[in-house]
Amino acid sequence: MKYNDIKLNALLRGLTVRSPEGKSETAVIENLNSRYPMSNLRPILYVLKEAGVKNIVIDLSRFSPQSRRIGLLFLEGAVSMSSDFETRYIGTTIDEISVEEPHLRGYISQKIAKSLDEAVDSFNG
Q1: Where are the alpha helices (DSSP H) in 16-122?
Q2: Is the pLDDT of residue 125 over 60?
Q3: What are φ and ψ of residue 67, in 5° steps?
Q4: Around Cβ 113, how many Cβ atoms within 10 Å?
Q5: Distance between CA atoms of 33 and 56, rounded to whole angstroms?
Q6: Taking Cα atoms as reference points, which of 89, 85, 62 lies closest to residue 73?
Q7: Which pLDDT band, with edges at 50, 70 and 90, does 50 fall under?
Q8: N or C: the chain end with fewer CB closer than 10 Å?
Q9: How far apart are CA 123 and CA 20, in angstroms?
């Protein structure tokens, strides 16, 4: 699948935001890490919502293995629940996330994909 950068009227501060060609309702957020101030994400999410984006894939691979679970839980609340986006995550595994909280396995497992293309395709099903 081919991905194109999305031009946004928001400061990205190191993030990359792309969209799969032909799927303008989906955005991919990359280069996010545990040191990125999550308050910087809010204006980006607002601009994406205004542009008609409904689905967001977030790459967690730049989070340290120890911070991925906390990062995912925070992002799930901030992006999926608070901003009303459908979310998927790449750059982590279900075992990495649910090791300390096994009750999350069923809920989160359907949101973790092995690859970017798999995550994007999962919005169609």
Answers
A1: 41-50, 68-75, 94-98, 105-109, 116-122
A2: no
A3: -105, 0
A4: 18
A5: 16
A6: 89
A7: very high
A8: C
A9: 12
Partner residues linked to 89 by β-bridges: 58, 112
- Smallest CA-to-CA distance from 87 within 98, 73, 96, 76 is with 76
3-class SS of residue 60: coil
* Entry field: residues in the chain: 125
Which two three-digit tokens encode residue 112?
A: 């973790």
φ and ψ at residue 60, rounded to 5 degrees: -100, 5
Number of neighbouring beta carbons within 10 Å of residue 90: 20
- Kindly indicate the confidence band of residue 16, based on its pLDDT and cuts at 50, 70 and 90: very high
Of 22, 14, 70, which is closest to residue 40 (Cα–Cα)?
14
Say how far apart CA 43 and CA 8 lie, in whole Å: 10
Helix (H), strand (E) at residue 88: strand 86-90
Q: Structure tokens of 5?
A: 């950068």
List Cβ neighbours of 110 (8 Å cut-off, separation of 6 or more). none
